[in-house]
Amino acid sequence: MKNFIKWHLRWTVRPIIKDLKYFRQLSFYLLTRKSISEKPLIRQYREGLPPSYERPVCLFCSYDKDSSVKESVYYYLNALKLAGFDIIFISTSETIGDTDLEKLSGYCIRIMCRENRGYDFYGWKTALEEYPQYKLHTALLLANDSVLGPLFDISDIVARLENCDADIIGMTNSFQFHPHLQSYFLYCKKNVILSDEFARFFQNVEVLELKIAIIRKYEVGFSRLLGRRFRVMALYDLRHLVARVGYHEKPVKWVNPFLFWKPLITEFKFPFLKKSLLTGKKVQDRGEIPKILARYTTYNLDI
Q1: pTM (two decimals)
Q2: Does residue 155 lie in a domain region?
Q3: Average pLDDT over residues 31-60
Q4: Where does residue 28 rank: exposed (0-12), middle (13-18), buried (19+ CB within 10 A)?
Q5: Could you list the residue range(s) of the whole structural domain that residue 132 is in?
Q6: SS3 call for 274
Q7: What phi, psi does 246 have (nearest 5°)?
Q8: Residue 23 carries which DSSP code?
Q9: Which residues, 6+ apart, have CB-to-CB distance to 44 below 8 Å?
Q10: Which string of b and e fits 43-64 if b means at least 16 CB within 10 Å?
């Protein structure tokens, strides 16, 4: 009983402390940031393959500190193309080299490189502004290169997404701050991308550099705003995952789905692995990742 009371108190007090820290960080950020009125500049813009409006379009955000496009990113782009997506590639690297530009032109209908400000949500906003034809496509996918994969075949992913009852489908969800879909993969059906709510959300996206503010305002805000009208769903719902593995150490509100990366891959055939798992200090079983990938997936570890 005593342990339960301690556990309950801990997870009751923690969100209050988190909120206080957040408002302190946000206040400091807003007071000290320089006034930014200009849009992030688009440094490079190139047309690639001709678009097909009978296909969904994917807005794919990418960043590489060495200004190169890794083979793992090309692997993901190729899988998306084969699955039926037209792709718009949005980079925030310093530049895209001629070799990569030429190679990307074989995967993408548009390639753009913009200033590294505003994170992915501003990148998606930029692509929507520069390519208003997105409304002509059958659906829209917001994606980024924060994950490795696909670890399994996703050739049927468009049919699977379209057959869902929901209007907005993500891979995973989170209950931190407020129930929401995680933004590395967000599939929006035609009725969503034509809606006033969708247009209004991205019109209001600003350049923010405080990551926790972006999570709260935009990642959480996207599901909250559009969830008032549209049905929102995760293909791999966190509540089902927690129940399946019998996890009780934290309330579901504080659980990151990728804590369960191993059962996600071995039992659920989840197609992605967060790159942060390879570098995170708290990932105790990181050394197992290559072994699990080699044993259970078709992913090419050489890339």
Answers
A1: 0.92
A2: yes
A3: 87
A4: exposed
A5: 54-303
A6: strand
A7: 65, 45
A8: H
A9: 95, 96, 101, 111, 112, 113
A10: eeeeebeebeeebbbbbbbbbb
Q: Could you tell me if 96 and 64 are in contact, meaning their C-beta atoms sit under 8 angstroms apart?
A: no
| Domain containing residue 265: CATH number | 3.90.550
The encoded tokens of residue 112 equal 């753009």
Residue 107 located in a structural domain: yes
Q: Enter the tokens of residue 204.
A: 């209001």
pLDDT in tens, 195-220: 999 999 999 999 998 888 899 999 99
Q: How deeply is 163 buried, as exposed, middle or buried, from its count of CB atoms within 10 A (0-12, 13-18, 19+)?
A: exposed
Pull the structure tokens for residue 250. Answer: 């934290």
Q: Which residues pair with 110 in a beta bridge?
A: 47, 88
Asked whether residue 192 is domain-assigned, the answer is yes
Q: How many domains does the chain have?
A: 1
The SS3 call for residue 174 is strand
Q: Tell me which residue of 239, 147, 223, 225 sits closest to 185, measured CA to CA.
A: 147
